[in-house]
Design a protein that fits this description.
The protein is elongated. It has two domains: 78 residues; 68 residues. It has eight helices and no strands. By secondary structure, the protein is mostly helical. It starts with 11 loop residues before the first helix and ends with a helix. α2 packs across α3 and α4 packs antiparallel against α5.
């Protein structure tokens, strides 16, 4: 087991590695073994820079670390916090571990959108959104965003369960 840093503000990548009880050397060795060494660019020296945030983490780094650590939620974190496009478009999954709560939230959102689908068709019928329709459209868009987020959470939960099964 590697030494645990006493640094106050650790990155999520360092925290995740330390939760596993791995040194940077072990993490780099595991990364190297993934997909026949496909991620050999990620060695312990790059990992230090990633964890200290002295280098901008790249998507291929995230893929390698999420696979090595069996933590698919690292990809969601990266998309929501470090990717310029993801900051705009990606829903942040904050509670993927509570799948029951997530499923209930999704059912509620689906029912809400289902109840408003006629109104959505009315708004979209003429191809324009006027001042009387914008509030309803915003409410429907909010519900669709909730559905998107719950789907992402369920997918992450399923992926984690599959990874745990395969271990």
């Amino acid at each position: 087991m590697g030494k645990v840093s006493i640094k106050a503000n650790k990155s999520i990548y360092q925290e995740t590695r330390e939760e596993l009880g791995w040194s940077r050397e072990k993490a780099a060795d595991v990364v190297l073994g993934i997909d026949n060494g496909r991620y050999s660019f990620l060695d312990k020296y790059r990992l230090v820079k990633i964890e200290d945030e002295s280098v901008k983490i790249q998507p291929e780094d995230i893929v390698a670390l999420s696979k090595a650590y069996n933590r698919p939620e690292l990809r969601n974190y990266y998309c929501c916090h470090q990717c310029d496009i993801g900051k705009i478009d990606a829903p942040e999954v904050t509670d993927a571990n509570n799948v029951h709560k997530t499923l209930v939230e999704m059912a509620v959102s689906l029912e809400s959108v289902n109840a408003k689908k006629l109104r959505l068709m009315e708004i979209l019928a003429d191809g324009k959104v006027d001042d009387t329709e914008i509030l309803d459209l915003n409410k429907i868009m909010d519900e669709l965003e909730k559905i998107s987020m719950t789907i992402e959470a369920i997918q992450l939960w399923c992926e984690k369960m599959k990874l745990l099964r395969d271990q």
